[in-house]
Amino acid sequence: MISGFIFRALEGKIIVAIAMLLGIAALVPALNLLTAPDSALHIPTYAMSLFGKYLCYALLALALDLVWGYCGILSLGHGAFFALGGYAMGMYLMRQIGPRGVYGNPVLPDFMVFLNYKELPWFWYGMDWFVVAIAMVLLVPGLLAFVFGWFAFRSRVNGVYLSIITQAMTYALMLAFFRNDMGFGGNNGLTDFKDILGFQVQADGTRAVLFALSAIVLALCLLISSAIVRSKFGKVLVGVRDAESRVRFLGFRVENIKLFTFVVSAMMAGIAGALFVPQVGIINPGEFAPANSIEIVVWTAVGGRGTLIGPIIGAVLVNAGKSFFTGAFPEFWLYALGSLFIFVTLFLPRGIVGTVQHGFKAREAMKAATDAENGRADVGTVAQTVQAAE
Amino acid sequence: MNTIAETRAKSLLYLEDVSVSFDGFKALNALSFVVEPGELRAIIGPNGAGKTTMMDIITGKTRPDTGKVLFEDTIDLTKKDEADIAQLGIGRKFQKPTVFESHTVWDNLELALNRDRGVFGTLFYRLTPEDKARIEEILDTVRLTHRAREYAANLSHGQKQWLEIGMLLAQEPKLLLVDEPVAGMTDAETVETAILLREIAKTRSVVVVEHDMGFIRDLGVKVTCLAEGSVLAEGSIDFVSSDPKVIENYLGR
Ligand SMILES: Nc1ncnc2c1ncn2[C@@H]1O[C@H](COP(=O)(O)OP(=O)(O)OP(=O)(O)O)[C@@H](O)[C@H]1O
Ligand SMILES: [Mg+2]
């Protein structure tokens, strides 16, 4: 049953993408660790970490594609799930600092000592165990998505209204996390991490492993997503996106379908956040900013929603562009991002991958047509391919 | 003469005194309507008579303000939602054909097939030989075998209507509600559709709403004329179309 489910996922493009990600997972750390710093092939650690960050964003975009591209739920709050996953990981990393903090308190993180906490808040208990932290990375975003989705989908909140309340959700969380008495470090968030599972966070070796993990986890989530969208469930999802009432009148529980997808997607976003935090070394309430969630939508739209691979490419390209712009012309980045979104919406509504795929289908149809003229294919197939491409 | 209780006990679908209003406008006004098992029924009536609203009420899309809506005498449909009602065995074709355009004809039917509709049931679903045979059979019934692998978006208007009827068949409903199936069809397609519906009605009850009087004549079944939210006349097509109230309210317009 499970093997059939996974096997179905392995369609041509997905196999190539997974192979490439696994290749990157091996090659980039190797070029970082095994080559001399002056070698032409050497990849400096900062570049590897930067690329690792893009891979986390790619996973986040993939998560959004599942709900937006396939199920038609335009979530403008996915940054919240990402940030929650990040905070869960950040809490673990804070607890690993132990007595090495500025105040040398063996239990309380520096910010708590500074804010006169007498003891650890209950929700920090157990977060010094990696297994618990990882469980929270999945559970907290998953639970928030479940509760939120339970109410929203049951009361049939749709379209713009749903988008607006997801924005409100991430905004409310941002305000909450900014408060010092929430117990998450307020404004400054969580930072100054020392080690993870006993390995120094800053060490090249650790960074290489974190990079490789990001690529592997992305590949795994791509596999799972592909299995989901290619199953009958995935076809129902597209049905919900295109003709929700038809799905309902066929006897499907649309609210359960949406809820499941939303929760899976939120968990993926949480994992992305957890991989992100040790690589950038900080998590703060700014990650909940509504604008962040909107940026995810831009990456997904640029790459091509409803294609799984598109959002991954979109996230990497747009963020590479962002790194370049914020280095070279910092004041222009927002204009560039805005123009990009307008350009894509107007001229590339299918996004990069969507447009290429469409082009391929059209070319195949053309070829079939010429073949037919030369008497090599029967007219029926031509008509079918031409129509399929339209 | 049957008592009301007997009529109700024998019925597949039973509506009594159903009223619903939208912003003070009475779309249905004390409507009573009974469908028996295995019956094919035609419904006519002017625009805005409440034909589609009646289907909305039966399928759980709209809740009536007052009145009884019973399925198989015991099941109160006003307490159930669309998915429940579909699972009970009531299928519905919309006035505007609604199929999944970005899926193939085959996939449309596969989705409609009356199988486990839960999240995990669909995630791990595999096409069995029986399901395959059933889909092929339906494709044949709705005359779409040759287009099975095409996207539904590329079908003609009439073919979309048929595909939607095929999807209803895949649901294996006990009662099929069909809203204006021949709107936008060619004459030949209309004739074919009448044959198709009669064929379908051999094994289940069907309620057809239509404006096309030629088509209604082809069906040759009991006709109910609705106007202003209640029944104006009921009987054979000749009986109904000679009723002066029907002529005044509908045919004469
Ligand atoms: N959800 C709604 N909100 C407000 N008014 C509605 C709603 N649904 C139906 N109506 C009104 O109820 C009346 C009955 O509409 P209905 O669609 O049932 O008519 P119909 O008999 O199907 O007509 P047609 O032949 O044009 O399809 C119309 O005046 C319509 O505007
Ligand atoms: Mg109508």
Give the secondary structure arrangement, pairings included.
The complex is a heterodimer of chains A (390) and B (253).
Chain A: H1 2-9, H2 12-33, H3 45-68, H4 78-97, H5 110-114, H6 130-154, H7 159-178, E1 190-191, E2 195-196, E3 199-200, H8 204-230, H9 232-242, H10 244-249, H11 254-280, E4 282-283, H12 290-303, H13 309-328, H14 333-347, H15 351-373, H16 379-389
Antiparallel strand pairs in A: 1-4, 2-3
Chain B: H1 4-10, E1 13-22, E2 25-35, E3 40-44, H2 51-58, E4 66-71, E5 75-76, H3 82-88, E6 90-93, H4 105-112, H5 119-123, H6 129-141, H7 157-170, E7 175-179, H8 187-200, E8 205-209, H9 213-219, E9 223-227, E10 230-235, H10 237-241, H11 244-251
Parallel strand pairs in B: 3-8, 3-9, 6-7, 7-8
Antiparallel strand pairs in B: 1-2, 1-4, 4-5, 9-10
Helix pairs in contact in B: 4-7, 6-7, 8-9
Number of strands of chain B: 10
Radius of gyration of chain B: 18 Å
Q: Span from first to last CA of chain A?
A: 35 Å
Secondary-structure element pattern of chain A, one letter each: HHHHHHHEEEHHHHEHHHHH
**Based on CA inertia axes, which overall geometry of chain A fits?**
globular
In the predicted model, the low-confidence regions of chain B spanning at least 5 consecutive residues are none
Major sheet: arrangement of strands of chain B: 6-7-8-3-9-10
Strand percent estimate of chain B: 15-25%
Question: Helix count of chain B, per DSSP?
Answer: 11
* SSE arrangement of chain B, N to C: HEEEHEEHEHHHHEHEHEEHH
Shape of chain B: globular
Commentary on this structure:
The complex is a heterodimer of chains A (390) and B (253). Chain A is mainly alpha-helical and 390 residues long. Chain A contains 16 helices and four strands. Chain A has helices at 2-9, 12-33, 45-68, 78-97, 110-114, 130-154, 159-178, 204-230, 232-242, 244-249, 254-280, 290-303, 309-328, 333-347, 351-373, 379-389; strands at residues 190-191, 195-196, 199-200, 282-283. In chain A, the strands form two sheets. Chain A has a two-stranded antiparallel ribbon with strand order 1-4. Residues 376-390 of chain A have low confidence and may be disordered. Chain B is an alpha/beta fold and 253 residues long. Chain B is built from eleven helices and ten strands. Chain B has helices spanning 4-10, 51-58, 82-88, 105-112, 119-123, 129-141, 157-170, 187-200, 213-219, 237-241, 244-251, and strands at 13-22, 25-35, 40-44, 66-71, 75-76, 90-93, 175-179, 205-209, 223-227, 230-235. In chain B, helix 6 (129-141) packs across helix 7 and helix 8 (187-200) packs parallel to helix 9. The longest helix of chain B is centred in the middle third of the chain and has 14 residues, at 157-170. Adenosine-5'-triphosphate is lined by residues 22, 27, 45, 47-53, 95 of chain B. Magnesium ion is lined by residues 51-52, 95, 179 of chain B.
